[in-house]
Amino acid sequence: MSIQSNNNSRNGAGSTVGQNNDIYNIVLLIVDIVILVFKFWLTIIEETVKLFTTRPQANVSGQFVLITGAGHGMGKEMALQYAGIGAKVICWDINDQTNSQTVKEIKQAGGTAYGYVCNVVKREDIMELASRIRKEHGFVSVVVNNAGIMPCHPLLEHTEQETRLMYDINVLAHYWIIQAFLPDMIERNEGSIVALSSCAGLFGLANLVPYCGTKFAVRGYMAALAEELRQKNPQTNIKLTTIYPYMIDTGLCKNPRYRFPNAMKLISPKDAAASIIEAQRQGLEEAAIPRHFVAVEKLGRLIPRKAMRLVNDFLDTGVDTDKM
Ligand SMILES: NC(=O)c1ccc[n+]([C@@H]2O[C@H](COP(=O)([O-])OP(=O)(O)OC[C@H]3O[C@@H](n4cnc5c(N)ncnc54)[C@H](O)[C@@H]3O)[C@@H](O)[C@H]2O)c1
Ligand SMILES: *[C@@H]1O[C@H](CO)[C@@H](O)[C@H](O)[C@H]1NC(C)=O
């Protein structure tokens, strides 16, 4: 609703027209506020109800799903599981051998997969590969920005090269890949982009200063992109999903530490992959693994930091340096 103020007076009765306009504008403002309050609470109720119901999952059978870092860990498990539900999986990894192994395993299980060696740091390679894939296969419906690295030690021990590489892989590569595949999604008004952030994108953790920076960055750019797409097209069907895994047993996290290993044990890459795929198919904007971590973070922010630190110290959970 747009409010136009027109206080020009050409007919000599300027003050009355102005007054009428003022009243009119106030009425419009009140109507806007009433609509806002009504929709606001309605949406809160709707979204709360949705938390307790199982959402329908999109059918990805026959569609192309691109996964970066498909040679190992969660990327590999996602590739296998997406293929298992009928998706045609495009596997990208810097490591030819492990990537080909993933493709081989998918084919052996009767699925469809295509492997490409790709160093996601190289923007030109990404653009070239993307146009090749567009020509050879067509529309890619799901893009999973998964490849990532996690050097883990105090900030003063991080080298420049390592730090830059971390931002190149964990953040900048996501931009290049989105720039390559989003235009088709916008044109068709469909598709889904998944980004791997981390619990290190929700909480600040010792030994992970640059890594936390990259994962907070993922969370930030995904929120901004969602806003940009929504402003461009309020009816957008493009789904953005940000994933915040806690510690997953892939070997990426070398020295996890916890006081209560039974309550906070490492999650298997299989379970993590299943959880990511479910979140993508349900079109969730945010999903932690385990799921309740997003709520924990929201609650944690309401509580003064000093008080939260007491809880952290009690749980004594984190990661120790990898230079031991
Ligand atoms: N494992 C965890 O505990 C954990 C927790 C939270 C978030 N994450 C995030 O999840 C994602 C996957 O983690 P993972 O544990 O499965 O990792 P992983 O180390 O098991 O596998 C990562 C894969 O990415 C590939 N890769 C690395 N650099 C690349 C590059 N430049 N170009 C292309 N491919 C490259 C590797 O070859 C490897 O196959 C990462 O973004 C990670 O930060 C992991
Ligand atoms: C999913 O899509 C595939 C391919 O379009 C179709 O064959 C299949 O019947 C669909 N499955 C469901 C449950 O709708």
Automatic annotation (TrEMBL):
Domain of life: Eukaryota
Keywords: Lipid metabolism, Membrane, NADP, Oxidoreductase, Transmembrane, Transmembrane helix
Keyword Oxidoreductase set for record: yes
Entry's Gene Ontology molecular function annotations: all-trans-retinol dehydrogenase (NADP+) activity
Coiled coil ranges: none
Main location: membrane
Any matching Pfam family: adh_short
Spans through the membrane: 23-42
One of the record's GO cellular component terms: lipid droplet
Membrane-topology annotation of the record: Multi-pass membrane protein
Subcellular location: Membrane
Physiological role: Catalyzes the reduction of all-trans-retinal to all-trans-retinol in the presence of NADPH.
Similarity comment text for this entry: Belongs to the short-chain dehydrogenases/reductases (SDR) family.
Classification via PANTHER family: PKSB (PTHR24322), RETINOL DEHYDROGENASE 10 (PTHR24322:SF736)
Full protein name: Short-chain dehydrogenase/reductase 3
Gene: LOC111591974
